[in-house]
């Protein structure tokens, strides 16, 4: 096994990730969302399948955005002229990221939704001791 070649491949991959972060605003937004989701996972002490779902959703979105940027760059490299197929390829790549982001949103709602609701409920009842009456309404 050529260890230097393997190391070089990691360097290229890392350089690619840095390039996407530097050039793509959407990637930076995804990164903020990813850090938030992982911080919430730590805060709620998620484990097992729930943690696996959150981590998977986060990395799928980041990888999807990276692929999207690669497709955009390759199409822009072909030339500045507009072509329906170039447009369709960019739209399809953007659509893939949207689908992955929707998946992450749905997973987030399923996993964090009940916990956030519980947190809000206890904060509400702590602030207003008689607030439990509202749940009877
Ligand atoms: N060469 C092209 N030929 C035809 N349509 C294109 C072409 N380039 C872009 N488009 C259309 O314009 C849309 C936006 O393209 P653009 O390259 O600006 O991507 P973007 O999502 O705004 O990303 P970024 O701002 O990072 O470049 C594409 O989704 C596509 O519909």
UniProtKB/TrEMBL annotation:
Family statement drawn from the similarity comment of this UniProt entry: Belongs to the bacterial diacylglycerol kinase family.
Record's keyword annotation contains Cell membrane: yes
Listed GO biological process terms: phospholipid biosynthetic process
Protein residues bound to a divalent metal cation: 72
A matching Pfam family: DAGK_prokar
Amino-acid positions noted as binding ATP in the UniProt annotation, renumbered to this chain: 12, 72, 81-83, 90-91
Record key words, sorted: ATP-binding, Cell membrane, Kinase, Lipid biosynthesis, Lipid metabolism, Magnesium, Membrane, Metal-binding, Nucleotide-binding, Phospholipid biosynthesis, Phospholipid metabolism, Transferase, Transmembrane, Transmembrane helix
Binding site for substrate: 65
Residue ranges crossing the lipid bilayer per the database entry: 29-46, 52-71, 92-112
Cofactor dependence: Mg(2+)
Entry protein name: Diacylglycerol kinase
GO cellular component, one term: plasma membrane
Subcellular location: Cell membrane
PANTHER family in the cross-refs: DIACYLGLYCEROL KINASE
A molecular-function term among this protein's GO annotations: ATP binding
Topology relative to the membrane: Multi-pass membrane protein
Active site: 65
Entry's cofactor comment: Mn(2+), Zn(2+), Cd(2+) and Co(2+) support activity to lesser extents.
